[in-house]
Input
Amino acid sequence: QVQLVESGGGLVQPGGSLRLSCAGSGIIFSINSMAWYRRAPGQQRELVASITSGGTTNYADSVKGRFTISRDNAKNTVYLQMNSLKPEDTAVYYCNAEIFSRGTWNAYWGQGTQVTVSS
Output
């Protein structure tokens, strides 16, 4: 059973920083792209950042210059460093990964971690 487990969310003041982690576990032979999404209250889920297996990154315009996505392939882990946080960054953050396990590729999701930016 493949699982993605997120950590690192919490409450932070505007201008502060947080680092999210998402680790894959189970029988994993390969991981293609990895990404972070978020869903704010009353909003649709949106892509925050993604990274390919080769390290190519993509960011939503709203987080460019403030957030950095990275990955450690040896640990099956993706990170999201969030700096200069704003109240509008408040949301539940989900990681997503395309994983090859037991002969097939599937998209997996983490359970979500709450990020609250408030003074």
